[in-house]
Amino acid sequence: MPIKIPNNLPAANVLEGENIFVMNAARAYSQDIRPLRILILNLMPIKDVTETQLLRLLGNTPLQAEVDFIYTESYVPTHTSRAYLSEFYGTFAEVRHKKYDGFIITGAPVEQYAFEEVAYWDEVAEIMQWSKKHAYSTFHICWGAQAGLYYHYGIPKHWTEKKIFGVYEHHLCVQHESLLRGFDDVFYVPHSRHTETRRTDVDAVSELDVLAEGDAGVYIIANLRRRQFFITGHAEYDPMTLKAEYDRDLAAGMNPDIPRNYYPDDDPSRPPVVRWRSVAHLLFANWLNYYVYQGTPYELDSLDNADE
């Protein structure tokens, strides 16, 4: 997908170096098509890393997309400068009158808190409610998935005995699901979390389906209308993301476990093996094509998609 982003966004140079088609505003406006409008609520502290990870995957289909980023006003991140936020991000107040084809809510490093204890919980809850009528399809990732399942369906998160950390094997739970088109019977996805969503809790909600699960528990959950997707892992991770987290915790004296299925022979001195790249591209391309592009109305102002 040629993705339209600000010319000077740091991610642009990285993506162009990877041969990802990035389109500047002038060229985009010269094309007589309506681009998909994608909103990303980026809750991660280091914004540019997550931007690059997501834009890399959004830029891998023949569709054109226009991407807006927002951050929370109720808690301003400290790892990203005010100048950066001012230049590349908006706030919910600035977009709440708009409608979007697709909406992504990222993970966040707040899983140690109860949802209501998170500084920006009320704002995120308001945004999730807003998304039901202002975004045709919503993609929740990691903590964003747990938050969405809790807010929309009352499903709790549970602490795990050990951190779920590494690259885990998964399998498909349904047949003929467009989101999973092209997936192998067995596939791998990175996870990094201390909490989980339990299958028994999901099965108790008749409006939800588990589409894939594995050694790290449930992985992809969807509502029956396929307008909300909840992804518990991180297919978008870079090859070195888990290494950076492992090295950080090791340096801090936390004695972390070696990430599972990541280093050859569990040897951190060797380069990690990437097992999830194709799955990541399929996941995002299938979502954009089958659940955003194929379903959203041409005139977004006519969007009325309350998931109630």
From TrEMBL:
Keywords in alphabetical order, please.
Acyltransferase, Amino-acid biosynthesis, Cytoplasm, Methionine biosynthesis, Transferase
Q: Where is the site described as Important for acyl-CoA specificity found in this chain?
A: E111
A Gene Ontology annotation in the biological process aspect, one of them, is: L-methionine biosynthetic process from homoserine via O-succinyl-L-homoserine and cystathionine
Q: Looking at its record, which EC class is this enzyme?
A: transferase
Highest taxon in the source lineage: Bacteria
Name the job this protein performs: Transfers an acetyl group from acetyl-CoA to L-homoserine, forming acetyl-L-homoserine.
The name of this protein is Homoserine O-acetyltransferase
Q: Which gene encodes it?
A: metA
